[in-house]
Amino acid sequence: MKRIMAIIVLTVVLNFGHVGFAQESKTVLGDLGLEFSGDLAFNSIYMWRGIMLDGDPVVQPGFYVKSPESKYGRVKLGWWMSHDLENKDALKYSETDWIIDYTYNFPSVGLSFGHTYYDFPDALPTDGAPKGFSRELYTGIAFTKLFLTPSVYYYYDYGKKEDGGGEGSYTVLNLAYSVPFKVKDIGMSLDLFGHVGHNNKQYYRGKGGDAAVSAGITIPLAKNLSCKPNINYSAPWGNISDKGNGNQKNRFYSGVYLNYVF
After folding, report:
1. Structural domain boundaries of the chain?
2. Of 27, 65, 76, 139, which sits 20 to 30 A from 262 (CA to CA)?
């Protein structure tokens, strides 16, 4: 219990303890137009592209910095991690991601390019290294004015398997829809998400993929701070669900997501 409370306190400090810094930065960095944001999620399990990476409850904080919107596009730098709050199954899994993203927004279309470095401290690579890592390039297009806001992303993992990498690709179609409503003059929204992804040899042999749906309610807690309890369902197919290969199963899971924009 002490370990769990320590992790929770640490993640809260990392994400929401920056408020004082952000207020000061309005004077120091305000002229630069930088935007700081943080998020903090608690999930019953860690699901990733149809694959259960950890069957224990996890805490997942993130922190991001965005450049101002300009005629040259926008750059985002991000840090994100996942850590299990318990260790009752055999899937001990920790992860830290470092992200750089460039997005250019046209009037009704957004184009993105980026790179993610994955650090897996609990992995045991076959090359004998003390931890695993991988690297992934991605590109995507989002149709911001169309119904369901469809977007398509392509991820290419070029990390070698002996280092802990995926050495494959993942293509995904995302859909989203929000319905605003009020409860006692408090503005909320019902947020629906879904995706269908295709896995081409990323971490597994052959081809397969996953489909998932999610429903959550965004609740404002304070200025620039919101909370979203959610429920999710993931269904893998192809080589991901093959008992002789991925052996992944259909799963329900739930979580709570906090977001703060400084």
Report:
1. 2-261
2. 139
Per-residue confidence (pLDDT) for residue 33, from 0 to 100: 84
| Residue 253 neighbours by CB distance under 10 Å | 19
For residues 138 and 154, what is the distance between their CA atoms, to the nearest angstrom? 6
For the stretch 98-125, pLDDT in tens is: 999 999 999 999 999 999 999 999 888 8
Token look-up 């369901």 returns 148
Helix (H) or strand (E) segment spanning residue 88:
none
Give the three-class secondary structure for 210.
strand
Spatial separation of the C-alpha atoms in residues 6 and 123, rounded to whole Å:
23
Give CA–CA dist 16/189, Å, rounded.
23
Answer yes or no: are the C-beta atoms of 240 and 233 closer than 8 Å: no
**Of 160, 179, 177, 178, which is closest to residue 168 (Cα–Cα)?**
160
Looking only at the bridges linking them, the beta strands covering 186-200 and 207-222 are antiparallel
* Gyration radius of the chain over CA positions: 19
- What's the residue count for the chain? 262
36, 40, 79, 101, 188 from 22: Cα distances, Å:
7, 17, 17, 22, 26
For the entire predicted model, the pTM comes to: 0.87
Q: Side chain identity at 149, as an amino acid letter?
A: T
Distance CA 124, CA 122 (A): 7
